[in-house]
């Protein structure tokens, strides 16, 4: 398994931007599909965005399309989530995950510890 560490969360006003990073350990990072999920207080964890091992395929939840962009740098073993036009409902703990394919990310065995994103109105 790969170890994941998220960073970049914080407090931002509505309409602002944040960039989350997820650093992975291990030489096999480039073989994993990567994804971002989030969990708001009292709610289930939900899918946000995913990217294939090559970066050639991306997928987004409807509620972030046009605002968030997922990318990866395999040379740096890092995946990013650029979040623009943030809304208060984007508040939550953001987790990154690694899996063999995008389709299996929700059941991924590798998760980070999460980074808190708080968007004030």
Give your account of this protein's structure.
The protein contains no helices and eleven strands. Helices cover 0% and strands 49% of the residues. The chain is mainly β and 121 residues long. It is globular and about 40 Å long.
Q: Name the average pLDDT.
A: 95
- Summarize the biggest pleated sheet: 7 strands, mixed
Structural class: mainly beta
What's the number of extended β-strand segments? 11
> Fraction of residues in helices?
under 10%
Strand content: over 45%
Shape: globular
What is the element layout, followed by pairings?
Layout: E1 4-7, E2 10-13, E3 18-24, E4 33-39, E5 46-51, E6 58-60, E7 68-73, E8 78-83, E9 92-99, E10 110-111, E11 115-120
Parallel strand pairs: 2-11
Antiparallel strand pairs: 1-3, 3-8, 4-5, 4-9, 5-6, 7-8, 9-10, 9-11
Brief write-up:
With 121 residues, the chain is mostly beta strands. Helix content is 0%, strand content 49%. The strands form two sheets. Strands 2, 4, 5, 6, 9, 10 and 11 form a seven-stranded mixed β-sheet that branches. Strands 1-3-8-7 form a four-stranded antiparallel β-sheet, with no helix packed on it.
């Amino acid at each position: 398994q790969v170890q994941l560490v998220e960073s970049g969360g914080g407090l931002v006003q509505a309409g602002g931007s944040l960039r989350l990073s997820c650093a992975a350990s291990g030489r096999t990072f480039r073989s994993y599909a990567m994804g971002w999920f989030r969990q708001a207080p009292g709610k289930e964890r939900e899918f946000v965005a995913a990217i294939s091992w090559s970066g050639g395929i991306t997928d987004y939840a409807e509620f972030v399309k046009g605002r968030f962009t997922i990318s990866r740098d395999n040379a740096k073993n890092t995946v990013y989530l650029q979040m623009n036009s943030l809304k208060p409902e984007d508040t939550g703990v953001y987790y990154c995950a690694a899996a063999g394919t995008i389709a299996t990310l929700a059941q991924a065995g590798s998760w980070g510890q999460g980074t808190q994103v708080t968007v004030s109105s």
